[in-house]
């Protein structure tokens, strides 16, 4: 904070020397003279609850990025140019560390994240509630997002992150983690393994039974019954040069032959008769 202010000509000369000659002392002097700007911008984000020193460091990274991109020939003050980079660097740090759940990946989501508190406070002073549909709609219109986005971000900002390993006290003798109450809707492992084994076994049976069919019967069954999108009777009839009624008859006969072959090899499988 004790670094001297730089006049326009001084900062332009330092920036030009760093850009054209890579002079490190010029960069150090330019950065130190603008650290008060970094601190002032970081202070505006202190209500997010993150360490002030970390935000200042991130702002300093943005300041150095601005120094590497600054073009002295445009004849603008370095502080004016650097402000955007400092703020962007601090905002990116906040989005990465404010919650374990990453959010604000788009420009509109970032605008919503950083403006929602201010708009809620402004509307609450006028007697509005953050959950009031009219207030939510007004915020959505002001930022240019959907009301669903506002409601989701409102919920995220209002409630802190909760670990699944956080204990839930049931009694003095027994306590469980939150994850113990999560319901898994996936099949049990023995059911999954059984399904895989049954599927593989039935595939082998079907493959052997298909050997009973003629070439034309096999083609019709494959394209009508075994393909992801079954062919129509009309399309198959046109391809084979027969009527669609004839295709239906051949298909019916082929299915009966398959059923007979499967029952012959596996007479205990009553499902084949369905």
Describe it.
The protein has 12 helices and 2 strands, in the order H-H-H-H-H-H-H-H-E-E-H-H-H-H. The chain has 274 residues and is mainly α. The protein has 3 domains: 90 residues, Four Helix Bundle (Hemerythrin (Met), subunit A); 52 residues; 85 residues, Winged helix-like DNA-binding domain superfamily/Winged helix DNA-binding domain (Arc Repressor Mutant, subunit A), CATH 1.10.10.10. Strands 1-2 form a two-stranded antiparallel sheet. Helix 3 crosses helix 4 and helix 11 packs across helix 12. It is elongated.
Q: What sort of overall outline do the alpha carbons produce when their principal axes are compared?
A: elongated
Overall mean confidence score, pLDDT: 80
> What's the CATH class label of the largest domain?
Mainly Alpha
Task: Characterize the main sheet.
Answer: 2 strands, antiparallel
Percent in strands: under 5%
What count of helical segments does DSSP give? Answer: 12
Distance between the termini: 86 Å
